Amino acid sequence: MALQLLILALSVSTSFAQSQGSTHEGCIHLPIVHSTNQQAFGKRAVQFSLANRSDVAYYAKRRPNPPFGRARKEKVELGTPPQPQFVQLDTGSFELWVNPTCSTAGSFGDAGFCSSVGNFDTAKSSTFQSIGTTKSLRYGIGSANITYVKDDIALPGSSSILKAVQFGVATATEDEFSGILGIGYGLGLTTRYRNFVDELAAQNVTRVKAFTLALGGKDEQEGVIVFGGVDTSKFAGRLARLPIIPAAQSPDGVPRYWVAMQSMTLTPPSLRRKTYSNSTMPVFLDSGSTLTLLPTALVAAVAADFGATTQDSSGFYSVDCALTKVNGTLDFAFEGVTVRVPYKEIIRQSGNQCVLGIMPNPDFVLLGDTFLRSAYVIFDLDNHAVWMTQYTNCGSSPAAVNDSKAFPSLIGTCNLQKAAVNDAASSSSVSTGTPTTVSTGGAAGGAASPSRSSTVSAAGTVTPRRQASIFALAIVVAVGVVS
Ligand SMILES: *[C@@H]1O[C@H](CO)[C@@H](O)[C@H](O)[C@H]1NC(C)=O
Ligand SMILES: *[C@@H]1O[C@H](CO)[C@@H](O)[C@H](O)[C@H]1NC(C)=O
Ligand SMILES: *[C@@H]1O[C@H](CO)[C@@H](O)[C@H](O)[C@H]1NC(C)=O
Ligand SMILES: *[C@@H]1O[C@H](CO)[C@@H](O)[C@H](O)[C@H]1NC(C)=O
Ligand SMILES: *[C@@H]1O[C@H](CO)[C@@H](O)[C@H](O)[C@H]1NC(C)=O
Ligand SMILES: *[C@@H]1O[C@H](CO)[C@@H](O)[C@H](O)[C@H]1NC(C)=O
């Protein structure tokens, strides 16, 4: 058989139980498993990765069927047909490859995690075709030397099998602990062959060249991606249309999901909002990056409001973990929509260490997982637009979109109140919540408490190990239009 590329949580939520067994012609919906998910990766792999690496990388795997008992069994059957693999979903790169070299994955913990993502044995596939050409892929962190092959890719929840898809089998990788499913632009823009998203449309598995991403919150440990459709149970009301900035007008000249950010605003519990200067800029949406990367001065201003004035040796701003319990948001405004990211989601926590999930970066301005977990986003490649609103979760109802003209009329079925606040409309009607007693975090703690000071920030922090490698996992630095 073939490579089986999937996305799925072995931890079964009610939503998957409900949708289990049903197929949705015209779309493929796959659960997204967070790398912290012990049921998916095994306790040991996750423990290592938590301590030493990312707590928010996203992997894809097939939906087990049935979801309970058999899921475990499937894991030990890795490498035999069908060959399920975990791959990282990356909107910031363009190609699919599998088989990382686990011995060069980085620390021991990474190697352990790497060995749990699966390995594709081409010799065991009857549909495998060699192409033989090679390529070197470089990412913000790590690299992969691949040899191109073609093989079928089975799709869960669908009777369809993608035939003869071109992808890479790695011959050597550095600092990569899983394969990557690049779902950025493909044929004609960044590759000379049809990438995974192109093939879905070309082989009529999807009717639109579009996919929607809901990474899911930290507490949920999983999310959903719908290729060719939407899940209207993951947002409220209408979506805002943001044109994708053409490569020629984008900051790096690369065809990516660049959109115009209008401003960033802090909404502390006191509701005394503060809009940051110089926060109007193009940003690209990158699920392959754990952190959000922004200009130095802007990050310093945000960090100061979270009580952090200095960076640790890895460049992180340490913040008080108590802020994860504070009812404030960092708000990212775009034309027609504001995505409010709760403190808890913008702060990265590893044990009792907390850092701001935003880093200064001179080269990249991107919104990574620390932003995307709070957004519901349709990547509409037919119209070169992104449709975005606040993420929320009121069930599961993935469905195909038959025509890309339908996007403007999509309506999320969740309760608006709980979710985003499209534009200015509601800011004055928001109630003032209970004042929090947390006394750290500068403005982020809410201006109600004058005793807050900067004494807590950064004091006594131990630099998390290998932090330099936890972010920017899959930012493509150089794009070769080569295959
Ligand atoms: C992983 O992190 C743990 C806890 O910080 C540490 O004891 C261990 O040495 C680390 N392992 C590697 C290989 O860095
Ligand atoms: C990939 O190939 C290039 C050029 O042949 C080589 O310099 C590089 O070391 C290789 N990378 C790995 C991870 O082996
Ligand atoms: C996909 O649908 C189009 C239009 O109906 C058709 O022309 C094409 O042959 C189909 N492709 C495949 C691979 O079935
Ligand atoms: C905003 O950017 C301008 C131009 O680069 C600079 O002069 C100004 O100091 C910046 N403001 C802040 C608050 O960083
Ligand atoms: C999409 O097409 C399918 C099959 O042609 C149809 O059953 C379904 O109702 C359509 N969906 C919408 C929203 O029009
Ligand atoms: C959090 O703050 C918002 C206003 O920003 C308010 O609507 C909500 O009720 C508060 N929630 C809690 C639990 O205090």
UniProtKB/TrEMBL annotation:
BP term (GO), one: proteolysis
Source organism superkingdom: Eukaryota
Covalent S-S links between cysteines: 321-354
Keyword Cytoplasm: no
Gene Ontology terms, MF aspect: aspartic-type endopeptidase activity
Alphabetized UniProt keyword annotations: Disulfide bond, Signal
Biased composition (Low complexity): 426-455
PROSITE patterns linked: PEPTIDASE_A1 (PS51767)
Region (Disordered): 63-82, 426-459
Active site residues of this protein: 90, 286
Signal peptide boundaries: 1-17
Entries under SUPFAM superfamilies matching the protein: Acid proteases
Peptidase A1 domain span: 72-389
Similarity comment text for this entry: Belongs to the peptidase A1 family.
Protein name, per record: Peptidase A1 domain-containing protein
Organism taxonomic ancestry: Eukaryota, Fungi, Dikarya, Ascomycota, Pezizomycotina
